[in-house]
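Field log, afternoon session.

UNIT: design team B
ACTIVITY: writing a sequence onto a fixed backbone
BACKBONE:
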């Protein structure tokens, strides 16, 4: 059973509610700050994230600081005991820095130095940039580190991207020298660089990937991604060093984006005290709310699993975004639902971008709690206030976790490798979508899942799913084998076990180092168009009891069984009769190899069967969840909190049967048939 984690803020052991606060845009009208404090109290907000883009307001000229406005803001916030997540301002640099130190500006893949402007665009190697961060961050830590309601250090903002300047090239070469023991032979072998005469004979020949240079050496591209991750971590470490030194007891974090895969978030997560992320789904678009909600749940599950503890929802919009093709209004109830969805999966906060709309600038029409007409009478304000009220009843949920029996591998390095690979298909390779599709049956059944990378432990799971594990890094095959031999059940798929960590193909028949474990040899992979259905038929009397034929498209492995047994075979194409789904028993465990990209009917039948066979705990036991409704839970070993979330537009009936709960919001007992309104939620407690 899970135990309770300490709250992120010991002084405020409550759900944090509030968000990005930019009083620096209102320095000329400080009465707005007083108004903000009043409105925050009225909206049941207890937290702000302050100063994210305030560098120029804090340091208008190099070395000349002005903290007067921020001092005043802190004074006002302290009166309401407002938790302050204080940001370091590295997300947007002031013009004076760019002018005096152009090396802090990024150089793009075409080797063009960028002009000053925008944000999130510093050179992550530049010693000047790091030093300027160190100076201002030191000032901030010294001045505000003892604020009694300090939340977390919010370092920089949404790290992303890459820089190709000379400093970065030199750092990349140094990083490669370390990685390949100063041995060019090793590097050339790893990159298979005799191909097209790409052999490197001098470290200075090496350049980062570029559309006007090298894009075809996949080992180079993957190493470049690794370097960018490394350099981001170095930059983060430099920015956080003064915080760690001066305020060692305060948690340090940086905010992640949704499914951004340019840098390895898993690697970055290991240096954070708490994970936080920014979620911006576009509800009511043509893809359907439930599909989108399922994808968002997947990311939440990943963020919780990263450090195996509660995380923070650092940003979401209380209403719309301003940069999507259509910025549709969230339907009534959806905002509350979205916030509770985060909490359901392990968030101990619902924080927004943004508290108040600025009068000008790119984000003046981005949703905010307080609109241009700053009244409390808006639909958005009222819904935020209502959510605050609900969160106020969830103190008991803070710090709790679910017991998770299913692990699903989504690995960033594997993503890069698949993305970079040339063949067997070069459009819509569907790696993350495939991971989503393997998560869907669990979302539908109300079974929590940890979304993990290959570096995290596997042994706590009863079921481990590794879709499209194209790259098998050193140690991973051994770890998977130990997991299976110890009694685990592993599901893997087509496009698995093709290359090593530098994209060199395995030579013993795919799935390479997993071949013995899977008991199959994937001789070739066909790629029918996604909608070009290849029929697959279960083998009569198969061990899983699969009875219905299903359709495959997109990827079809041409498999041979070594030691595995076929559970289903292709019934179409020239590979008719070849195995399409197999099972192999190894030690005390079982391995399923899914040879084709299958329809939802298969996903549902196959995983429902595994959920049953492995006795995986469903949040609401055998209560049937209606379509587009999910349920998940958190607990501390004594109390269990169940969240039932409906992504249906209309009312849905749910039969809780004889399970009896207390409705957390009304404290009334609840059971039997209940009606969930459109976009409605239920928060239940069972002792
Ligand atoms: C985030 C960013 C915020 C704000 C928001 C708008 O990615 O961190 O500063 O721009 O998007 O949705
Ligand atoms: Zn650079």
């Amino acid at each position: 059973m899970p135990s309770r984690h300490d709250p992120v803020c010991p002084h405020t052991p409550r759900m944090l509610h509030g968000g990005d606060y930019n009083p620096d845009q209102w320095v000329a009208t400080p009465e707005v700050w007083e108004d903000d404090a009043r409105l925050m109290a009225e909206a049941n907000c207890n937290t702000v994230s302050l100063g994210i883009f305030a560098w120029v307001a804090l340091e208008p000229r190099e070395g000349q600081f002005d903290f007067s406005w921020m001092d005043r803001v802190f004074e006002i916030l302290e009166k309401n005991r407002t938790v302050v997540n204080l940001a370091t301002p590295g997300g947007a640099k002031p013009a004076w820095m760019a002018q005096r130190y152009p090396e802090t500006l990024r150089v793009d893949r075409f080797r063009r130095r960028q002009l000053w402007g925008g944000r999130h665009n510093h050179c992550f190697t530049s010693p000047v940039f790091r030093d300027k961060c160190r100076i201002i961050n030191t000032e901030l830590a010294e001045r505000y580190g003892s604020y009694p309601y300090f939340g977390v250090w919010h370092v920089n903002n949404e790290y992303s991207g890459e820089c190709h300047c000379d400093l970065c090239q030199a750092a990349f070469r140094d990083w490669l020298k370390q990685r390949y023991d100063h041995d060019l032979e090793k590097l050339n072998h790893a990159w298979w660089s005799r191909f097209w005469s790409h052999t490197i004979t001098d470290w200075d020949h090496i350049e980062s990937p570029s559309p006007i240079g090298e894009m075809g050496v996949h080992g180079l591209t993957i190493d470049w991604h690794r370097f960018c991750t490394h350099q981001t971590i170095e930059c983060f470490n430099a920015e956080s060093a003064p915080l760690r030194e001066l305020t060692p007891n305060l948690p340090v974090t940086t905010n992640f984006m949704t499914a951004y895969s340019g840098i390895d978030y898993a690697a970055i997560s290991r240096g954070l005290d708490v994970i936080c992320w920014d979620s911006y789904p576009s509800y009511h678009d043509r893809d359907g709310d439930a599909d989108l909600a399922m994808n968002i749940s997947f990311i939440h599950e990943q963020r919780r699993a990263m450090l195996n503890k509660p995380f923070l929802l650092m940003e979401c919009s209380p209403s719309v975004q301003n940069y999507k093709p259509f910025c549709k209004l969230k339907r009534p109830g959806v905002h509350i639902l979205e916030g509770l969805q985060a909490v359901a999966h392990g968030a101990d906060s619902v924080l927004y971008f943004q508290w108040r709309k600025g009068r000008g600038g790119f984000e003046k029409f981005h949703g905010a709690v307080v609109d241009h007409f700053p009244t409390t009478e808006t639909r958005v304000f009222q819904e935020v206030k209502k959510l605050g009220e609900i969160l106020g009843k969830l103190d008991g949920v803070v710090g709790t976790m679910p017991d998770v029996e299913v692990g699903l591998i989504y690995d960033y390095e594997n993503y890069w490798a698949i993305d970079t690979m040339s063949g067997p298909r070069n459009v819509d390779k569907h790696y993350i979508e495939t991971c989503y599709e393997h998560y869907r049956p669990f979302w539908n059944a109300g079974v929590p899942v940890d979304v993990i990378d290959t570096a995290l432990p596997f042994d706590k799971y009863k079921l481990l799913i590794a879709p499209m594990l194209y790259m098998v890094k050193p140690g991973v095959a051994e770890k998977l084998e130990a997991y299976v031999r110890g009694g685990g059940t592993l599901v893997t798929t087509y496009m698995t076990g093709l290359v090593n960590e530098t994209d060199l193909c395995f030579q013993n028949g795919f799935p390479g180092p997993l071949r013995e474990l899977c008991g199959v040899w994937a001789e070739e992979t066909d790629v029918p168009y996604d909608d070009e259905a290849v029929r697959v038929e279960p083998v009569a009397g198969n061990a899983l009891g699969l009875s219905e034929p299903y359709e495959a498209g997109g990827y079809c492995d041409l498999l041979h069984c070594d030691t595995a047994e076929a559970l289903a075979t292709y019934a179409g194409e020239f590979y008719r009769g070849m195995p399409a789904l197999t099972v192999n028993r190894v030690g005390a465990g079982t391995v399923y190899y899914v040879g084709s990209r299958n329809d939802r009917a298969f996903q549902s039948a196959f995983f429902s069967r595994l959920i049953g066979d492995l006795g995986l705990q469903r949040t609401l036991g055998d209560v049937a969840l209606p379509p587009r409704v999910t349920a998940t839970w958190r607990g501390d070993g004594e109390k269990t909190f169940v969240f039932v979330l409906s992504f249906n537009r209309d009312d849905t009936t749910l039969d809780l049967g004889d399970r009896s709960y207390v409705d957390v919001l009304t404290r009334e007992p609840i059971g039997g048939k209940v009606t969930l309104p459109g976009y409605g939620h239920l928060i239940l407690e069972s002792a």
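LOG NOTE: The mean pLDDT is 97.
NEXT ACTIVITY: expression trials, pending approval
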